């Protein structure tokens, strides 16, 4: 492969949406940020230069980072953040992946404005497993806050309550015509009749899974998280924060004067408040020259209702691997993680806005993960883990619950910086169960450094005797982000073939902030290609 070089200048830029101008953190002054295009097998070098007063760090979401863990990016996990005036070159090769991924800031809530697409084309001469589309377009969903998102999360963490919700969702950075003061701020996709367009869809919203539909058009889903899936047709897609999916849009055979809206709005089952507005973009057919233009008819799509879990379930079940996957059959390491919300004590002399005057929190196996002040990967690599992390993350929940019955009285989480240690090349099965404490909710769990197979999912309590009998070990979908169903569980399998420290967290940003996160530490193997190399010399220091 070749080497592709990019420079990301992290800088402030004034941006106006909804008649509201704010100075916000961007890459090269652009919102959404620049697109990275590469081919499978190419090396990507991104020099990130920090020109702002906040610390920054960039994550290449979904890139496996095989033996390049120093380039993964989550602050205080694989690296210390890049400080003001400093820079760091992220250096990685995309191996064995093609499709759409994305990059985003991975510190505090800066990813709300710092994100962009990663397009991974197949190796030269390797075709798609479908007819080459006429055109390919990224469609990125985001969330716009009139306020500074850093202030929003700081306030929430101080008061212990839920954060203020966003003011709009966006498609390619634009809220679209359904919002006040946004009529001109709509993304417009101009299409020709009878052509196939590939939409590279990315959900970069902070806190919401989104339904998406294009009026009077069906799409064909062909890829998820940069892995091909068995194609299927659908009128509506559902996509969680962190997920990406490629769909083929075949335009109508005859010219149309109508304007078709493409709309996205949330899927939400939790108890908290959320932004329930709708973002829209425009699909418009090219006018034939000389034709008289008729008055435009605007057609809107129909989207499922906000809490349509039946749709969510049947949609999730449609995803199957296209190519025969190598699903681990013999399992070396089994884990059962509860994921969900909880509470922690209110600091003295504070009034907290969580339930019964507590602070809202979130946990995995009752542990709310506390970020260290130095990076876990550095501590591990240099043998300085003492006082930074403990290797005893529990394999099952500390308190057992009946997840479907009355929620337990004890909603308290405990704090800790614990990791699971995995020997190199061992296999892992992980069942994640939504605790439903403080409301049943879908949690999109994202694993860094790996793709995993989604072998099973269901509702209610996971039954370790019966449920494995129904696991799909034949053609499960392979992803990096999967929704733990609202009031249910999901089972995944992966091979720990990538030495390093790998973050796993809910991609609803507020849940991450509350502690729904943990890390896996994969040890080196004995072979020459089974070790994490030493860090690059410009790796930031804390
Ligand atoms: Cu897309 Cu840890 O993140």
TrEMBL record:
Record InterPro entries: Cu-oxidase-like_N, Cu-oxidase_2nd, Cu-oxidase_C, Cu-oxidase_fam, Cu_oxidase_CS, Cu_oxidase_Cu_BS, Cupredoxin, CuRO_1_LCC
UniProt cofactor(s): Cu cation
Top enzyme class: oxidoreductase
GO biological process: lignin catabolic process
UniProt-recorded name of the protein: Laccase
Claim: Metal-binding is one of the keywords in the record: yes
EC number: 1.10.3.2
Subcellular location: Secreted, Extracellular space, Apoplast
Protein function: Lignin degradation and detoxification of lignin-derived products.
Keyword annotations: Apoplast, Copper, Lignin degradation, Metal-binding, Oxidoreductase, Repeat, Secreted, Signal
Family to which this protein belongs: Belongs to the multicopper oxidase family.
Pfam families listed in its UniProt record: Cu-oxidase, Cu-oxidase_2, Cu-oxidase_3
Record note on cofactor: Binds 4 Cu cations per monomer.
Catalytic activity: 4 hydroquinone + O2 = 4 benzosemiquinone + 2 H2O
Principal location: secreted
Alphabetized GO MF terms: copper ion binding; hydroquinone:oxygen oxidoreductase activity
Transmembrane segments: none
GO CC term (a single one): apoplast
Residue span, Plastocyanin-like domain: 13-123, 136-287, 401-524
């Amino acid at each position: 492969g070749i080497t592709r070089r990019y420079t990301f200048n992290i800088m402030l830029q004034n941006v106006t949406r909804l008649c509201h101008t704010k100075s916000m953190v961007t890459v090269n002054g652009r919102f959404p940020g620049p697109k990275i295009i590469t081919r499978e097998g190419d090396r990507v070098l991104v020099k990130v230069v920090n020109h702002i007063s906040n610390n920054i760090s960039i994550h290449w979401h979904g890139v496996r980072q095989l033996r390049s863990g120093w380039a993964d990016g989550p602050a205080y996990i694989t690296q210390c953040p890049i400080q003001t005036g400093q820079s760091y070159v992220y250096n990685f090769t995309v191996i064995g992946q093609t499709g759409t991924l994305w990059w985003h800031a991975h510190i505090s809530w800066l990813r709300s404005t710092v994100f962009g697409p990663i397009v991974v084309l197949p190796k030269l001469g390797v075709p798609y497993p479908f007819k080459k589309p006429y055109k390919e377009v990224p469609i990125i969903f985001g969330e716009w806050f009139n306020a500074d998102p850093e202030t929003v999360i700081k306030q929430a963490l101080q008061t212990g309550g839920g954060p203020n919700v966003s003011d709009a969702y966006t498609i390619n950075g634009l809220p679209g015509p359904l919002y006040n003061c946004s009529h001109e701020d709509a993304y417009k996709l101009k299409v020709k009749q009878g052509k196939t367009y590939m939409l590279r869809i990315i959900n970069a919203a902070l806190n919401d899974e989104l339904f998406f539909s294009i009026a009077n058009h069906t799409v064909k889903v062909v890829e998820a998280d940069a892995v091909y899936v068995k194609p299927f047709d659908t009128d509506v897609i559902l996509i969680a924060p962190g997920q990406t999916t490629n769909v083929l849009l075949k335009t109508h055979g005859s010219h149309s004067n109508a304007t078709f809206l493409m709309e996205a709005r949330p899927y939400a089952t939790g108890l908290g408040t959320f932004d329930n507005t709708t973002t829209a973009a425009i699909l418009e057919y090219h006018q034939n020259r000389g034709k008289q233009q008729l008055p435009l008819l605007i057609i809107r799509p129909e989207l499922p209702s906000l809490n349509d879990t039946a749709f969510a379930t049947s949609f999730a079940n449609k995803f199957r691997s296209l190519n025969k996957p190598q699903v681990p059959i013999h399992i070396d390491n089994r884990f059962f993680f509860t994921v969900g919300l909880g509470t922690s004590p209110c600091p003295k002399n504070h009034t907290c806005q969580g339930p019964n005057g507590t602070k809202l929190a979130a946990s995995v196996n009752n542990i709310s993960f506390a970020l260290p002040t130095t990076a876990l990967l550095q501590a591990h690599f240099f043998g300085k883990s003492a006082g930074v992390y403990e290797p005893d993350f529990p394999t099952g929940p500390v308190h057992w619950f009946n997840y479907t019955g009355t929620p337990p009285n004890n909603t308290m989480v405990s704090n800790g910086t614990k990791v699971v240690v995995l020997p190199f090349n061992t296999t892992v099965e992980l069942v994640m169960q939504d605790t439903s404490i403080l409301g049943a909710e879908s949690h999109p769990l994202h694993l860094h450094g790996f793709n995993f197979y989604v072998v099973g999912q269901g509702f209610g309590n996971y039954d370790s005797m019966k449920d494995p009998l129904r696991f799909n070990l034949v053609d499960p979908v392979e992803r990096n982000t999967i929704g733990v169903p609202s009031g249910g569980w999901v089972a995944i399998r992966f091979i720990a073939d990538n030495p390093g420290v790998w973050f796993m967290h809910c991609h609803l940003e507020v849940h991450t902030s509350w502690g729904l996160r943990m890390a896996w530490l994969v040890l080196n193997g004995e072979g020459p290609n089974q070790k994490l190399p030493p860090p690059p010399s410009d790796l930031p220091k804390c």
